[in-house]
Design goal:
By secondary structure, the chain is mainly α. 81% of the residues lie in helices and 0% in strands. Helix 8 runs antiparallel to helix 9.
Length: 192
């Protein structure tokens, strides 16, 4: 129910329902579900610019960290990374994103992998680690191309692919790597 209210933009009602979900998860003593609900409540509160965001995020981090690593899914690590990004703990976010990337790869979840790589690339670029950002963006573009080929349809449109290769070209240029930059621009133009 909370997700529906969130979808329609009624964040206050969505938060109320997520908080009710929290009460149920606490009662049922399901730590992973409780951590996920805390994180979702934190996200909603941050969207609504409401107080209490950090309380929910801190609780989610504590709960996730108490769970055995093998019980956590790739999405849980992505959730932890999102929280760390929100509180500007980028090194911790990178660690969680690397774990998420590894798990998404193992699970053959290409969309999850793309999401993780996009977040990693953005952090690396922000931190000035351009070679790592470039590698992530290049892998994203290649994954998108592979998904289109495997599915036999354009799941990722020409504009999306052109933007991905354009990002690679831009980063190559910042590093003064002209040959890879030209190659990436040629790929971008092929999709433009």
């Amino acid at each position: 129910i909370a997700s529906v209210y969130h979808l329609f933009g009624d964040l206050d009602t969505a938060v109320t329902y997520y908080e009710k979900t929290l009460e149920v998860e606490i009662t049922e003593n399901n730590q992973i579900s409780h951590a996920r609900a805390e994180a979702q409540t934190g996200h909603l509160l941050s969207e609504a610019n409401s107080a209490g965001v950090m309380n929910h995020y801190s609780e989610a981090i504590n709960l996730f960290e108490e769970v055995a690593e093998e019980e956590l899914q790739a999405e849980d690590y992505l959730e932890l990374a999102n929280i760390q990004i929100y509180i500007s703990e980028f090194d911790d976010a990178i660690d969680y994103l690397r774990t998420a990337t590894s798990k998404f790869t193992k699970d053959d979840n290409k969309q999850g992998l793309i999401t993780s790589l996009q977040k990693l690339a953005s952090i690396y670029e922000y931190k000035g680690k351009l070679a790592l950002a470039t590698k992530c963006f290049r892998n994203i573009a290649i994954l998108m191309e592979n998904i289109n080929e495997e599915e036999g349809e354009m799941r990722y449109g020409h504009e999306t692919l052109a933007n991905a290769f354009q990002q690679v070209a831009s980063l190559e240029l910042k590093q003064k790597n002209l040959d890879p930059e030209i190659a990436a621009l040629e790929k971008a133009l092929a999709y433009a």
